[in-house]
Every structure is written in structure tokens, then in C-alpha cells.
Amino acid sequence: TANLRSSRSAPAVTNQQLVEKLVFEKTLITPQIINAFKAVDRKDFILSEDHDRAYEDRPLPIGYGATISQPTTVAIMLEKLQPERDDRILEIGSGSGYMTALLAKIIMERGKVFSIEYVPELKGLAEFNLIKYDLGNIALFAGDGKIGLKSYGPFDKIISSASGKEIPKACKGQLKASGRIVAPLGDSLVILDKLSKRKFKEEKIPGFVFVPLQ
Ligand code: SAH
User: Fold this and answer.
1) How far apart are CA 53 and CA 170, in angstroms?
2) What does R_g of the chain's alpha carbons equal in angstroms?
3) Fewer Cβ atoms within 10 A, N terminus or C terminus of the chain?
4) Which tens digits make up the pLDDT trace of 115-164?
5) What's this model's pTM, rounded to 2 decimal places?
6) Would you say the CB of residue 75 lies under 6 angstroms from ligand 1?
């Protein structure tokens, strides 16, 4: 996924520089989210042939037509989601596992990330990349995120990195009342707040490019 905003500054060459850039641009604001970005090295989620570009603010291919999202996009999505300590979070599109690791760091040991990936090989990639981080609060699944993970719900928050024509109804149903969904819709990012069983408040931010939802 890519955000169309471009940056004039020289590309970051360390993870620390990447975080400093996102903080300087005020894309990252929340201390817990900033700490997670510092603790999770983006290079660990990038294919070896692209290691020299690991800290550039751009999406990079991870195979199977998917990309690890642009850091600015990941930062915006997490700042909008506002994951909290102990949250149960459903993630659609594990991909490289980068967002999964960030979520797991933010919600701490007693929270849990349930991450579902459509392409079995990418689930394998996420699993491999995450080994190093030894996070005990992640469960990875291969399957279709559009139907959610009913038996593990309801969730405090839901986040998707793949863009469809609508926010999946099943996911809305598996969200706790007062929960929040951050998901792409076409080339916009949508933030849905669940006010009651069927009532949602919606905010839409245009100007993104996302991997399509299968
Ligand atoms: N968060 C990932 C982004 C990967 S791109 C990262 O940080 O690397 C989006 C991912 O969504 C791709 O891996 C793609 O295979 C996956 N995807 C697409 N449609 C899906 C679906 N219906 N259910 C689950 N995952 C899906």
C-alpha cells in the first residue's frame, strides 16, 4: 500500500531515521505507537534483494502481487486505529507480518492479534519473519478475511491492508460495540466507529493505493 504524499528529504538508511522522519512529519504522534516502530525493524520484513531500500518511505514487493505497505500509510492507519493495551485485534492481510508485529507490540502481552492472510505462502512469510520477535500474542490464520474469524471475536479493533468495494459485513458484526475498523475502500482509507449494533460513524481519507482484497 502506498500513500500518494511524497517526501523531499533524503531517504532514511536506518530504522531509527525512518521513525524520526515519521515523527518529524507528525505522522506518528502516540508514544506507544512510536515505541513499537522503534522496536520493530522494517528490514526484518523486507525481501533480501530490497534490503538496501528497507527504510525508504515506499511500499516494496513481498511476492504474490502483494507489497509491504509504505511506512507513512502504516503510521496513519495505526494512529487512526489507536490500538490500546489488552485489545483483541483482527488483522486482514498479514502479508510480511510487519503491521502484525507493530500491533502486537502496542497492545502488549495480554492483548492478542488475530491475523488472517489469503495467500498461504504469505502466511508462511509472515510466520517466518515474526519468529525473530518471539511475540506470544499473535495468532496467524490462512483464509479469507472477508468472513472474519467469528469464533475468536468479538474484537476491539479491526484493521485491513487490502482494499475492496465495501467494508465486509461479517467484520462489522464481529466488532464490539464502541469498537473501530480502519480499512481501505477503493483509494480511500475509511475509519468506522461502531456506535451501536447497526450504527456506524464514518470518516474517509482519500489518496491511497492499496493491494486489492481477494
Ligand atoms: N499488512 C501487510 C500488507 C500486505 S498487502 C504488511 O505489512 O506487509 C495486503 C495483504 O492482504 C496481501 O498479503 C494480500 O494477500 C492480503 N489479502 C488480500 N485479500 C485478502 C483476503 N480476502 N483475506 C485475507 N488477506 C487478504
Assistant:
1) 37
2) 16
3) C
4) 999 999 999 999 999 999 999 999 999 999 999 999 999 999 999 999 99
5) 0.96
6) no
